[in-house]
Amino acid sequence: MTQSMNNYITGSEVLKARYIPVVTEMVESWAEGKPLNPESGKANGYYRLTAWLLEYVMRHNSLPKGVHPMPEGRDRFGRTEPSFPVDFDSLTDGFVLPG
Question: Which sequence spans correspond to the domains of the chain?
């Protein structure tokens, strides 16, 4: 059991390393021109979108299609951050996942 759990963790890290560059590039393009969060210096929702998209591509080995709502979140001070829709058809246009 321990050996298979270690393989899963290792496999997960391999997938994360494979996909994080393209996920980051997509989220950076999404963030262009959006208001910045003064605490992080990134667009509001940047980290939620990054985490959601990375989990999606790791789980499905494909890019999402259509509009998906990003879940409501909390900032580091516990303040609620609202859900927001993301159009993945336009966001992923021109991007491909590494093989």
Answer: 2-91
pTM equals 0.84
Beta-strand runs (E) in the chain: 67-70, 73-74, 80-81, 84-87
**CA distance to 13, 14, 15, 86, 94, per residue, from 8 (Å):** 9, 10, 10, 30, 31
Q: CA 80 from chain center: how many Å? A: 19
Rounded-to-integer distance, Cα 1 and Cα 81, Å = 39
Output the pLDDT for position 7. Answer: 55
Q: Tens digit of pLDDT for each residue in 25-53?
A: 999 999 999 999 888 899 989 999 999 99
Total number of residues shown for the chain: 99
pLDDT of residue 1: 46
| 84: CB partners within 8 A, 6+ apart | 45, 69, 70
